[in-house]
Amino acid sequence: MKVYNFSAGPAMLPEEVMLRAQKEFCDYDGSDCGIMELSHRGSQFSKVIETAEENVRELMNVSNDYSVCFIQGGASMQFCMIPMNLLPAGGVADYADTGTWSAKAIKEAKRFGQVNIVGSSKESNYDRIPVIRHWKPTPDAAYLHITSNNTVAGTQYHAFPPVPESVPLIADMSSDFMSRVVNVDDFGLIYGGAQKNLGPSGVALVIIRNDLTTRIPDSIPTMLRYDTYVNNGSMFNTPPTFAVYMLKLVTDWLKEKGGLQVIEEINDAKSDALYNLLNTSDFYRSPVDPGSRSRMNVVFRLPSEELEAKFVKDAAANGMIGLKGHRSVGGIRASIYNAMPLAGVEQLIDFMINFEKKNG
Q1: Taking a C-beta distance cutoff of 8 angstroms, is the pair 43, 29 a contact?
Q2: Which of these is catalytic: 172, 227, 248, 253?
Q3: Long-range contacts made by residues 72-76, C-beta under 8 angstroms, separation at least 24?
Q4: The whole model's pTM is what?
Q5: How far is the CA of 77 from the CAs of 96, 130, 203, in angstroms?
Q6: Span 259-287, mean pLDDT?
Q7: Annotated catalytic residue within 94, 97, 101, 324
Q8: Can 270 be counted among the known catalytic residues?
Q9: Under 8 Å between Cβ of 270 and 340
Q10: What is the pLDDT of residue 333?
Q11: Hey, what domains does the chain have and what are their CATH numbers?
């Protein structure tokens, strides 16, 4: 039985990528060694990390005004690195509060300086992106931080907030990195953990505008400085070689698929199909405002928690796993990242229709 993994992360990887990694696992490039056994200073891994960067630049049209960095610690490490590096003493950082992960980023930033919450949807249980025209930004903010997609709440920005030229826009794109076309030039820094759309856990991808590295105080430790990664090609110390290798394979796959425009069209088709079912059903209910619904994490509720538990159990028995909602909110969550094929979404829809007939 084919199993489709709807987990929010670590998430499924493209089957083609997994098969290629399996083929090369014990013998990479004729070395008779796995890539994780080879020196990070050797020519074979150097080519891997160079190609990974080239792929990122090509797929996202990243100019030479930006550096591409591979940093350990996941997105959670970035929650502290950003204010450590970019929030000066006496400065103010603006944050939009749209869910669990933005709240964690805000908590870390408050350790280093003053934080202004420009907008929040907390009072409505994070069921929407707060209306941007109602935000209250700081005129001379050190930066504005947003979380582009919220895995727990199932919300996503479909338009990014405008910022003054002097205020860098920073985005945590962990759960929708490379799922759609974005203009990198609109941002000062983009970051995300790899384990949803880009590869396995163990590495964060950071795209940073080079001029921001001139802001970093001398007091910041070497391994927590962005310029350490920029100036050393992410090779100051041993990088997470296997995670970078897998990110390279995933970005190879994205290029083979036709790039982010094609991927965005596929993701739109997948999410549209699921939301069309939710919109026409009296049995399933989406708690998310229609204008803020995520293309990556489709959350919904059933008439009772007992039915939700049965739904998760029966779905797993039919080859669909990882559908239980986040422990903080409950319900059902179908994470349909880039690697989830349309066939997996169609199988879930068929199951949902039959489950409603039997239990509605």
Answers
A1: no
A2: 172
A3: 72/202, 72/203, 72/204, 72/239, 72/240, 73/204, 74/193, 74/195, 74/201, 74/202, 74/203, 74/204, 75/101, 75/172, 75/174, 75/191, 75/192, 75/193, 75/204, 76/104, 76/193
A4: 0.97
A5: 19, 26, 10
A6: 98
A7: 101
A8: no
A9: yes
A10: 98
A11: 15-257 (3.40.640.10), 258-359 (3.90.1150.10)
